[in-house]
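Hello,

Our lab assistant flagged a job as stuck in the queue for most of the afternoon. It eventually completed. Since we weren't sure the result was trustworthy after the delay, we are filing this so someone can double-check. Below is the sequence as submitted and the structure that was eventually returned. Let us know if re-running is recommended.
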Amino acid sequence: MDFRVSCALLFAACFIAQPISASAQTSTRGVPDLKVEANCKATQEIDKSLTEPQSYEACMGDEQTAQQQLGPIWPTTPETIRTQCTAEASAAGIESYVDLLACIQMNGFGQPSAPASALRGASKNRNKKQSG
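-- returned structure --
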């Protein structure tokens, strides 16, 4: 084989492999990086009026637990569900792994080892039981 044919074959192989590797990266990228710290600080202030307030540390602990639980189920959750749930978990500037986990579980993915509903974190829905 001459040099030009070798280069042409290599070039063609790169074009064929590129879409395959790009789609693999898309389908296996990790759990999104959510900024929950500010919301946990705000939650602490809001919760002061509740009968069972949540500390900043407890909020962050719940968020970290939810993030860890998302790790193994994230790659097996369809991209459409991941996209939808990420948008919901980041709506109105309130980002929460607890909300992201709950959304994915409500869509039938991931077995809840600790149900997301038991985690409060910075979830937009965290105080519905207490305030209602």
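-- support follow-up --
The delay was a queue issue, not a problem with the job. The result is valid. The two ends are 77 Å apart (CA to CA). Residues 31-131 form one domain.
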